[in-house]
Here is the input.
Amino acid sequence: MPDARTIALYNEKASEYADAFADEKPDASLQSFLDLMPKGARVLDLGCGPGRASAYMRDAGLVPDPLDASEGMIALARDRYGLDARQGTFDDIAGTAIYDGVWANFSLLHAPRADLPRYLAAIGQATKTGGTLHIGMKTGEGTHRDALSRLYTFVTVPELRGLVEGAGFTVTDVREGAESGLAGTVDPFVIMRGRKNA
Here is the structure.
């Protein structure tokens, strides 16, 4: 089950979050992901938030499947972008070889560490051979809440690589950096991309 305080925060601040990250065009990470996807590709937008990434996917000729645990975020995705977004948790990742890509951009960082292997395994099962996984996580160690009371699980780069490879992907790209989020702190992160093995 998702952390109740984290979901409550996203419900309360859905509009503020959407406005804070309302870019006029896809950022570099999303654009490079879109460039890898064939027209008509089905993409799981895991933890879609207000739906901005899914809207860009749709505009690029893809078929996004936006999923989020926050009722407030799902309402925004539907109302602001006209998306057929669905409310659900990481436990609702299902299916076998149905997605050409999975966009898990700073969503699984809210999952308990003990659950990460099975969530990644479910993603691996749901991804077609040759499909692409994008995953963004905050780097570090341990678990703690930010100033807004959101619960985070921090990972090291080798730890995340092990999780991605263990789920049946070959890591093709790794990028590290630091940026400011909704809580106003500058935090280190890693973005990792993988290709699903046969």
